[in-house]
Design brief:
GO terms for molecular function: metallopeptidase activity; peptidyl-dipeptidase activity. By secondary structure, the protein is mainly α. Helix content is 70%, strand content 0%.
């Protein structure tokens, strides 16, 4: 959850720049990644739910792999 808070703060900072007008393609590309929130845009409860679902999916994958061996 700390990562989400950090990412939101950096998103706020990055969106304050007119980065689409930058001439350096590498810098523009970095800003394009920073200005997409993704899952961190969700409210805390929903983000926790997504995190829990991802954890469950990973547990199921591991179980399935063990059974195949």
């Amino acid at each position: 959850m700390e990562w989400a808070k950090f990412h939101r703060e950096k998103w706020t900072e990055a969106t304050s720049f007119a980065w689409k007008n930058f001439t350096n393609p590498d810098v523009r590309r970095m800003f394009s990644f920073l200005t997409v929130l993704g899952k961190v845009a969700l409210p805390k409860e929903k983000m926790q739910e997504v995190w829990n679902l991802g954890t469950e999916v990973e547990k199921n994958r591991r179980r399935k792999r063990r059974r195949r061996r």
